[in-house]
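seq/struct pair 1
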Amino acid sequence: MHICIRKSCINRISFGKEYDPEQVSFLCIKCKKTFYQSSTGKIRFQRIKRFVIITVVFVIGLIIFYAIDIPSLFTSNKSPEKTMDNFFRAINNQNYAVAYTYSENDFWSPLSKFQSKDVWGTHSEISIVQISKKQYFSIYGATDILNVIYNTVINGKRESIERDFHLKQIDGKWKIVRMVFPKNPEVDAFKMEEVPQNSEDAVKKFLKYLDKGKFKKAHLLSANKDWGLEFEDFLKKWGCTANVLEMTTKKNESVSRYATDIVSSGYYLTDSCKGTNVSYKYFFHLRNNNGLWQIVKVTEPQ
């Protein structure tokens, strides 16, 4: 192909080469160069043009393909582990909208909060060091729990973090429903066989955990605002409790204005801080939250 630099040239652009069999040669009177015109040259140019266009479109498509993290959209449903991998990759690429699609965590909602500096907005260069399944009851309704150790850079500072991620499938897609500090089923989480079978069993287990000094497990059975929802506040109420002797515990058929079930219970306990032994009889109002019976209110018999 020849391009004459002079706009006045009547054959400014030509398609052909000297060796083309049907070429016609011309002498450009402006640039004093010989150029050639042929049908073979035109066909060759069209092929090159198509190749360039296809290449450019392919490269642009490839950039878009990975920029919006399309691969993860096709692999995200395979397993909880793959979901975590896709989640962190999207964070690394600052594709917060894509990463947000893997979340059903109320504490990360809405997207503006999710991508803020208080949640994931300052994280970069995340790499998973270790990922393993854990077996304990999820109070958040998750079916799978993954313990994840990962390295990340937060505000320019490299850190190593360990968290338990609670996941479940929603409409066929794995979602992160909660991220918490690692739990130990021996201390601050329920083994599957420890989960109360009903509201009456929940009250009995609550008193048993108080008796054994397992206050963190007792706290898991409480959603009573009067006792404090945080463990530190709960401990102020029950931390001195010892020698709990449960006498009678029975489900009451009365209708609760606070929850779904009422369980009456009489018991003795020792207040180790005051050195006194006290007997109580209360109505425990319970509600089932994500498969776990919890005490939401306690009232005295009328």
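seq/struct pair 2
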Amino acid sequence: MTAVRAEIRAIQKVGLAKEVLEQKKAEEQEINELVTLSEVKIGGMLNDVPKATKDNARKQIDSSVDLLKPKSETLKEIGIPQKTAERYQKMAQHEDIVREAIAEARENDDVVSRSAILGKIKKKEKSDQIIGLRQERACAEAEADNCGEGRRKPTSLRR
């Protein structure tokens, strides 16, 4: 009888542990999503930081305004590495993909990762680039067909 009671207690503990595990997984997922969305927000703010060019670097724009610093110096002051800032900015430019990745991770009971998001962004950019090249080629071919001097129309189009 004592052994059976011990088994019952063990089963109850396992049930509790499973419940706690699921709760912790949900917490991890939520924290990860909030961090990711915060990175997107930071990226948006970094996109708004003006870049200093050769013409406006260290120039006094207004007597009441500080000198315009290079963006790299601003990043150094706030403690964000250049590469990290670039990643945040890329995520901010593709917020729709970030939200898609978060929803996909949630569906799969997984946590979203920055590298997975950046991979999706890179894939979309590549796809957009290929589509753009195809459109350019199609336009160039259409122009060549319409603009060719001395070319005759195909027999099906002649009257």
